[in-house]
Design a protein that fits this description.
Elements lengths: L4 E7 L6 H8 L17 E13 L2 E12 L9 H5 L4 E6 L4 H17 L8 E6 L7 H5 L11 E5 L1 H26 L1
Parallel strand pairs: 1-3, 1-4, 4-5, 5-6
Antiparallel strand pairs: 2-3
GO molecular function: GTP binding
InterPro entries: P-loop_NTPase
Organism: Arctia plantaginis
Length: 184
């Protein structure tokens, strides 16, 4: 049976652009109107609906609870509450967080995906490029562990490929719903 609402966590190193992505996906802000980044204090929940998803041949609408989580480790004591009931995890990193990204992504994956026993299909890694160039090669240089071999990894650029991000996000939500339906 398909849920009416999905709880999705978005987490990654500080300053990787999580809030900007969350706002864009949920149509909360226009990319051109974005102002200076402000660190999220703990978590911020954005609720919105995705319409007309094709899940196993059926068109469906789904409410999304997108938990935009701070990557700052001083909020680590909140992590158990954040992951409670989670059905999907979006890991976010960017070129300006690439130095620590590999280790951080592993930590976040283990805590928010492996420990609550989510499948690799319930996780996606967004490599958030802010420059007007293709950073696919830089993403390869992240040196992610074998843990990520089954996790979808998507290079995104809100300035040049925002509509592509919305398609990628919808595909990700569809794969979660298919995974949940298969397990039931």
């Amino acid at each position: 049976m398909q849920p009416n609402k999905l709880k999705i966590l978005m987490i990654g190193p500080s300053e990787s652009g999580k809030t900007h992505i969350a706002n864009f996906i949920s149509d909360s802000i226009n990319i051109e109107e974005a102002d200076t980044p402000r660190p999220t204090q703990g978590v911020r929940i954005v609720e919105f609906e995705l319409s007309n998803l094709n899940v196993n041949g059926k068109t469906t609408n789904i409410d999304i609870e997108l938990w935009d989580c701070s990557g700052d480790h001083r909020f680590e004591s909140c992590w158990p509450a954040l992951r409670l009931g989670v059905q999907g995890v979006i890991l976010v990193c960017s070129p300006n967080t690439a130095q620590t990204a590999s280790r951080e992504m592993e930590l976040f994956y283990n805590y928010f995906v492996s420990q609550p026993k989510l499948s690799a299909k319930q996780c996606v890694l967004f490599y958030n490029c802010t420059e007007d160039r293709d950073d696919q090669q830089e993403m390869v240089s992240l040196n992610l562990s074998h843990t990520f071999s089954k996790v979808s990894q998507v290079t995104i650029n809100l300035k040049t490929g925002g509509s592509r991000l919305k398609i990628d996000f919808s595909n990700y939500i569809t794969s979660i719903l298919q995974s949940i339906n298969k397990d039931n």
